[in-house]
Amino acid sequence: MDRPAGRRPTVKDVAKLAGVSQGTVSNALSGMRGVDPVTRQRIDQAVAQLGYVPNLAARRMRTGMTHAIAVMTSMPAAVSAGSSRLGFLMEIAASAAIHALEHNSALVLVPPVADPATALRNVAMDGAIIIEPQRDDAFLSLLRQRGLPTVVIGQPAQDDLPWIDMHYSETAEMLLSHLLQQGSRRIALIIGASQRVSQGITEQVYHAQMQRFGIAPRVIRVPEAEGEEGAYRVTRALLQQDPGLDGIFAPVDAFASGVMRALREEGRAVPGEVRVVTRYDGLRAREERPALTAANLHLDQVAAMATRVLMDLIAGREIAHCTKGPSPSLVIRDSSAVQGG
Amino acid sequence: MDRPAGRRPTVKDVAKLAGVSQGTVSNALSGMRGVDPVTRQRIDQAVAQLGYVPNLAARRMRTGMTHAIAVMTSMPAAVSAGSSRLGFLMEIAASAAIHALEHNSALVLVPPVADPATALRNVAMDGAIIIEPQRDDAFLSLLRQRGLPTVVIGQPAQDDLPWIDMHYSETAEMLLSHLLQQGSRRIALIIGASQRVSQGITEQVYHAQMQRFGIAPRVIRVPEAEGEEGAYRVTRALLQQDPGLDGIFAPVDAFASGVMRALREEGRAVPGEVRVVTRYDGLRAREERPALTAANLHLDQVAAMATRVLMDLIAGREIAHCTKGPSPSLVIRDSSAVQGG
DNA sequence: CGCCTTGAGTAAAACGTTTTAAAGGTCGAG
DNA sequence: CTCGACCTTTAAAACGTTTTACTCAAGGCG
User: Fold this and answer.
1) Are residues A306 and A161 in the same domain?
2) Cα dihedral angle (A118, A123, A128, A134), rounded to 10 degrees?
3) Which nucleotide is closest to B34, CA to C1'?
4) How many contacts, defined by CB atoms under 8 Å, are there between A and B?
5) Is the Cβ atom of B22 within 7 Å of strand D at any atom?
6) Which residues form the HTH lacI-type domain (chains A, B) (predicted)?
7) Number of structural domains, chain A?
8) A10 touches strand C (CB under 7 A)
């Protein structure tokens, strides 16, 4: 493999060495068209000798394909930053990267930043996976504007985009049923104030369950931007106001952290006096003391599905508008165990 | 913004509408050369009207710049897969993504896969961050072969690549001193069998410390590929053979999990009878019961440094051969607390 | 034998941008 | 008035690949 000094060898160099035209080299390497076996062998040899590696940028410009997909979320930094939601994003990214590679594509990570427009300006991609977009999501509208194939993990607010169903209502039911089964009878829901699909559905399920058990509903909305701190504040107020509370459902794990801190400082025993559950089983849920009961959302499988659907979409294959993700499973931890359990 | 049906507007369309040449448009948009303010305004208006977005592939082919960097590791799957080491990789990737974006670059995630060659074939990048490479690292040799700027997180085995010092010896000293200070006097080191720089240094530090305290060293090597299971096996054997053991240092967190399981099944109290510490403070360390004392390696800062150095390297700026990362800090958890602490 | 099809190969165009070489114009100094 | 310096603008080249349109030869079939 002797490289012509300075310059990387091109298809032209290979063609010259093999004594054929550029077109034939292209056909031999990646081409659909037939090439005589003996010619192909000459070309292969030239490639090996020169150490030729195709220039991806040139190929991509010519074909229009980027061979890269992106993963992004527009969660506000207060809930997505640090180790909490970032875990959510990263679990999905890791799995998507592996599966993208199986389709000869790279995965680029678009971090949650203040300015989505500049973030996307420098990222080339064939399509995107967007995680739990909100109504009027900035990333989503940019993607639409560029006409990029997009798959939603979670549920789209109003769009007709293909999506992976994460079973929002099933998850909420599972966690609430667990609280009820453990004996909680005055259960509060602490939820984000934004217009997110997951929150709407969770709230609906909560109201239905409370009504079934004849429990007065107690919904507290926290602006997402206030994150853990906001949840801490409202929980302290809530505990003063309603001392008989014996269960809290805080789907956002950053909120759950705030809830736990409030309970500690109010001197309430968990799970003795108050049981707490959250949704995403990430670092926060596991590190809390007592550790939080949560749902295993099987994000690796969800991401694998999203990647496959996106690849189908990009390739122009037929796709299902909605793909059912794996059902969540309950991870019972100390924060909701029956007394003495 | 009225797009000429079907085709995305190009610089040529903008030029025509603004009544100037392509070159002037290019100069106005990204160019270094002067453009008359009034002309520039006409061009800006044309851009807005057409909704022009530069074709990144074309730009990249022309300039030779990809505006993307990659993060990769070649840790064997047994220790890097699942939530343990993957956490390590992802913590770095998340931080690198944010900082890459500040330099107008995307971050692509190269997952640890069986075949590095095919993994890299489809990834275009200006440079790479490689995490704790081993001797004769497959990724590393591919990067070298393609002549790509590379920064090592950890320490390179024999290469002259720029690297971010993660303070291997300082970390090992800190964790061992902690064990000694907590009263442990028969301390075993359970470490990977491979030729990794971090392991060599850790072992050296261990021997020095043991000698200083007049303790007979006890080093057990586990093939990395055996992961948690391997560590479990050797620890059970170790406990039978040396019942007086009162401290275990297992730098690899997957090994620490195996160690804890062995201790449980042998009925040894942690930290009562045996104290355990590990290195990377990830999901595994926090989720273990009792939770493991570990080192906060400040991976976000390490990744930020690596990204900056890589960007300097790509831009051809002067760089330091070795950059000191942040000093690790001790995170004391129950697995090493003094009795009754 | 004549005609059509097929297969292998080639030269040149095309992709959309940035860069280069050159040209036109203005302005000030001599 | 002339010359050079400087600024703006342009036409065309260049980047490295894939695709297109075409040629040429060989072979099958009537």
Assistant:
1) yes
2) -10
3) D8
4) 109
5) yes
6) 9-63
7) 3
8) no
Distance in Å from D16's C1' to A61's CA comes to 10
Residue A121 lies in a domain: yes
With a cut of 90, say whether residue A121 has pLDDT above it: no
The verdict on B190 and B277 lying in the same domain is yes
Q: Chain A within 8 Å of B103 (Cβ-Cβ)?
A: no
Per-residue pLDDT, B73: 87
Q: Quote the pLDDT of residue B3.
A: 46
- Chain B CA closest to residue A52: B146
Mutate to test the interface with B, among A10, A122, A142 (most CBs of B within 10 A): A122
Q: Which residues contact B121 (CB under 8 A, 6 or more apart)?
A: none
Q: Environment class of residue A163 by beta-carbon count within 10 Å: exposed (0-12), middle (13-18) or buried (19+)?
A: buried
Do residues B172 and B243 both lie within one domain? yes
Average pLDDT over residues A5-20: 90
Contact state of A98 with B111 under an 8 Å Cβ cutoff = yes
Report the gap between the CA of A147 and the closest CA in chain B (Å).
10
| pLDDT for the residue numbered A159 | 80
Considering all nucleic acid strands, name the nucleotide whose C1' atom is nearest to the C-alpha of residue B30: C18
Chain-centroid distance of CA A87 in Å reads: 9
Q: Are strands A106-109 and B329-331 parallel, antiparallel or unpaired?
A: unpaired
CATH number of the domain enclosing B18: 1.10.260.40
| pLDDT, mean of residues A152-174 | 94
Q: Is B225 on the interface with A (CB under 8 A)?
A: no
Q: What is the CA radius of gyration of chain B?
A: 26
Nucleotide whose C1' lies closest to the alpha carbon of residue B61:
D15
* A109, A142, A287: best to mutate for the B interface, most B CBs within 10 A: A109
Question: In this complex, is the C-beta atom of A296 within 8 Å of any C-beta atom belonging to chain B?
Answer: no
- Closest residue (CA) to C1' of nucleotide D18 is A62
Residue B61 maps to a domain: no
Q: Are residue B223 and residue B174 in the same domain, yes or no?
A: yes
Q: B86 with B24, same domain?
A: no
B178 and B288 part of one domain: yes
b/e sequence B123-134, b meaning 16+ C-beta within 10 Å? bbbbbbbbbbbb
C-alpha neighbours within 13 Å on the C-beta side of residue B199:
20
CA distance A161 to A166: 15
Domain with residue A100: its CATH number is: 3.40.50.2300
B103-137 per-position pLDDT tens digit: 999 999 998 887 888 889 889 999 999 998 888 88
Nearest Cα residue to A320 out of A166, A160, A202, A206: A160
Find the closest chain B residue to A81 by CA distance.
B94
Residue A58 contacts strand D, CB under 7 A: yes
The residue with greater pLDDT, A318 or A81, is A318
- Please check whether residues A283 and A321 belong to one and the same domain: no
Which chain A residues in 239-278 sit with Cβ < 7 A of strand C? none
State residue B44's pLDDT score. Answer: 95
Residues in chain A: 341
Q: What sign results for the dihedral spanned by CA atoms B133, B67, B95, B119?
A: negative
Kindly determine whether residue B122 and residue A105, on different chains, have CB atoms separated by under 8 Å: yes
pLDDT at B297: 95
Is A59 inside a domain boundary? no
Residue B167 φ/ψ region, left for φ over 0, alpha for ψ in the -120 to 50 degree band, beta for the rest: left
The lowest-confidence range among A107-116, A173-182, A310-319, B65-74 is A107-116
pLDDT of amino acid B80: 54
Could you tell me the distance in Å between the CA of residue B21 and the C1' of nucleotide D10?
6
Strand D atom within 7 Å of B36 CB: yes
Q: Are residues A307 and A161 in the same domain?
A: yes
Statement: residue A76 has pLDDT above 70: no
In a domain, A198, yes or no: yes
Taking the CA of residue A332 and the nearest CA in chain B, the distance in Å comes to 14
Give chain B's residues under pLDDT 70: 1-6, 76-86, 339-341
Q: What is the pLDDT of residue A330?
A: 98
The whole-number pLDDT of residue A179 equals 97
